[in-house]
Amino acid sequence: MKKLQFSKICKNFGAVVANDNISLSLGEGEILSLLGENGAGKTTLMNILFGHYISDKGFIEVEGKRLTPGSTRASLDAGIGMVHQHFTLAENLTVLENIILGTEPLSRLWSQKKQAYKKLKELSKRFGLLINPDAKVADLTVGEKQRVEIIKALYRDASILILDEPTAVLTPQETIQLFKVLKEMVNAGLSIMFISHKLNEILEISDRIVVLRHGKLVGEVATKNASKESLAEMMVGRKVTRPTYEKLEIGKAVVELNNVCLKSSDGSVGLSNINLKIHEKEIIGLAGVAGNGQSGLASIFQGLAHPSSGEFKLFGESLIKYDPRYLTKSGVARIPEDRSKEGVIGEMELWENFLGEQLRSKAKSGFIIDKKQAVKSAEELIQKYDIRCEEAFASTRLLSGGNIQKLILARSLSNNPRFIIANKPARGLDEGAISFVQHQIINAKTKGAGVLLISEDLDEIFELSDRIAVIFDGKLQGPFDTSTLNITQVGLMMSGEMLEDSLNEA
Known about the structure:
Elements: E1 2-13, E2 16-27, E3 31-36, H1 42-49, E4 57-62, E5 65-66, H2 72-77, E6 80-83, H3 95-100, H4 113-127, H5 142-155, E7 160-164, H6 172-187, E8 191-195, H7 199-205, E9 208-213, E10 216-222, H8 228-236, E11 253-262, E12 271-279, E13 282-287, H9 294-301, E14 309-314, E15 317-318, H10 324-330, E16 332-335, H11 339-343, H12 350-355, E17 364-365, E18 368-369, H13 371-384, H14 401-413, E19 419-423, H15 431-446, E20 450-455, H16 458-464, E21 467-472, E22 475-481, H17 487-494, H18 499-505
Parallel strand pairs: 3-8, 3-9, 6-7, 7-8, 13-20, 13-21, 16-19, 19-20
Antiparallel strand pairs: 1-2, 1-4, 4-5, 9-10, 11-12, 11-14, 14-15, 17-18, 21-22
Helix pairs in contact: 14-15, 17-18
């Protein structure tokens, strides 16, 4: 039975075609994965389903009934629940209060607590979503917060659940638990649409896979007949190859932290007695759930934060001057976590952004810029790094996320840096862009650079890293030789387990 049907959905934003005549269905008790690169049209389609947008053409049916367009309430009443990647919970309220919030008029809200408590307990037991109703949301783990979001949808009698990048911030163990829950839900007759860029997970959890590219539906396949390679090719329209790991003989230490501590002034996790050494021709992968001190560590390496104690040695000498310009000039390159906010200035033209961190560029002599030379250099890098744009004078804000990342890579790596901080370099990118980014990082390592790869994607860390360190609550374990670890062990360390305990449980 068709639970949900999209019929010939079209949506344009000016000249941009976001959805082009898309028809697809979701069956009862089915997990359908929706796959596609950035800008493929996935988000627009989901926003139409949830009433945030109105399609220009086409319609949606839920159990054979037309869904009222442009109405979130109509979508909720039709049994559609959505769990966003970024949770929408009130941290100061309890689990129970978050779940019933918005379901009752304010005048009756707290009088329904007893009934709501009973329903929450029933749902938790039925689907294995164990959670304390009286716990403050602020005190929950990321995995527990996600359970609350799912229960919120179920509490509202959702029969269709949309999950947008549900494993993005989960440990491997939390992902395993989530998949158990999802299987219980489909066994009970619920239908699930699973949106993710992690091909391994899609192949594990889904029954069918639908692929979008440039707003069009380009492929539909039963999961049993799919592979990572075939899905990647459908997503980008060509064969995609990931780089092959090669262990090299390491050189001198490029950076070294000795008992480094960093106090937090904004309430975020600081750093406690961090010891870390990274060598030439070596990639160290830093694994950890977001918010455990990665940002602080990256800030130190970029000269944006001064340790409260301990020593930072750069290329064998203690660092005294914590200044981004000084570090860049010394041979440090950065691939920032937020490429749009931290990596480029959107209103600037491409050639201007290229020049930003190229302190040894032929186009710069002190404060004097040779515009002709700067534009020429930009054009050369645009071609070399396959940056899809009209020209070097184009506004940077018009680039896609993948092309902005290529710009940052071109700017940083063309300086032949000795040390690279790559902070989630493949986050939010399609398979083609991920492959390109990873190849460039490997090439930089081969040329002699030391690399700190900060990532929440353990597959990426295991594929690229010589050694792996794990950060939890501002404390570091490792680095350990990658060949001595498995994903289960790393996942347990990401949850705060010590390596010895992880080895016993793995």
